[in-house]
Amino acid sequence: MEQPITLKNNGQINIVLNNETKKERVYTTSIPRPVKRPIVNHEPLLEIEREMSGLVGMDELKKMIKEIYAWLYINKKREESGLKAEKQAMHMMFKGNPGTGKTTVARLLGKLFLNMNVLSKGHLIEAERADLVGEYIGHTAQKTRDLVKKALGGILFIDEAYSLARGGEKDFGKEAIDTLVKHMEDANDKFVLILAGYPREMENFLSLNPGLRSRFPFIFDFPDYDVNELMDIADRMMDDRQYQFSGDAYKKLKEHFMDVKYNQTPLDFSNGRYVRNILERSIRAQSMRLLEEANYGKEQLITLKSSDIRL
After folding, report:
1. Which of 60, 95, 122, 130 could be disulfide-bonded to 199 (CB atoms 3.0-4.6 Å)?
2. Whole-angstrom distance, CA of residue 43 vs CA of residue 115
3. Which spans of this chain does the record mark as coiled coil (predicted)?
4. pLDDT at residue 9 is higher than 50
């Protein structure tokens, strides 16, 4: 007859027989317990990686942003352990032609720095020369101070920053630079300054102001897109708008990009913006064609033909 058993907390196994309990044998049982491991939540990094995965190219830039996150995270861990945590300014320079994603990346960095408690607001203030340079002595300093005040807790993004040095020693742009440098020192941990512009002009700007380079520990290059990346951008823009290319339209656009990149790059070539402008012109041309054809089937509504592509 099968004998019922009971397991007591002390690990002894007792056999119950004829309403009497007799101790037959003792086992030392080891009940496995789950090992407690610290849960590391890298959601700020995962969030920016998700958003940057939607951007074409930028592999080196994505790697650099991950390094910035890692440095910030480890510094916080060092502080929690009572160790010295290195303090470093987060001011940056972005070198790249128009349409290479500089403003988009600046916005994403604002979100990352907000989530990492580096910045209190994470907002982006965009500015150019006219927003900083005044018309008389003292006016420029006040305009620049007002902009910095708006940017506190976030990022001040100045495009075509080299234009501040174009007028020479007597130009008020120099006053704007001097005021910015002062606030970079006085409010170093309260805002992030990003100067952006064309690569060649930015290098020249740094050579004219040798003290500036050392104040920007992060200098990012935003390279122009190659032909395949331009087509990738076009495909994503078309998907977002619920359009598609016909085979001939796709071929025509790609051949145009190859010609632009390898034979006759226009002075105003603007990468992603250049692609967007072509698509917007082409969609308008398709609308005119469909209106004349009075053909409004779903396939016709979403397809751009070769004759629609406006280069």
Report:
1. 95
2. 9
3. none
4. no
Domain boundary assignment for the chain: 43-222, 227-308
| List of residues 6+ apart from 124 with CB closer than 8 A | 103, 106, 107, 110, 154, 155, 157
- Average pLDDT value over all residues in the chain: 85
State the pLDDT at residue 34: 47
The fold of 43-222 is Rossmann fold (3.40.50)
Contact residues for 250 (Cβ-Cβ < 8 A; gap 6+): 231
Q: What 3-state DSSP class applies to 196?
A: strand
Backbone angles phi and psi of 94, in degrees to 5: -115, 120
Strand-strand pairing, 244-245 and 303-304: parallel
Options 3.30.70.120, 3.30.2290.10, 1.10.8.60, 1.10.287.130; CATH for 227-308 is 1.10.8.60
Query: What letter represents residue 142's amino acid?
Result: Q
Which amino acid appears at position 178 of this protein? D
Of 60, 82, 7, nearest to 221 by C-alpha is 60
pLDDT (tens digit, 9 = 90+) per residue, 87-100? 878 999 999 999 99
Tell me the C-alpha distance between 261 and 120, whole Å: 42
Opening angle at CA 16, ends 10 and 19, nearest 5? 130
The whole-angstrom separation of Cα 27 and Cα 36 is 27
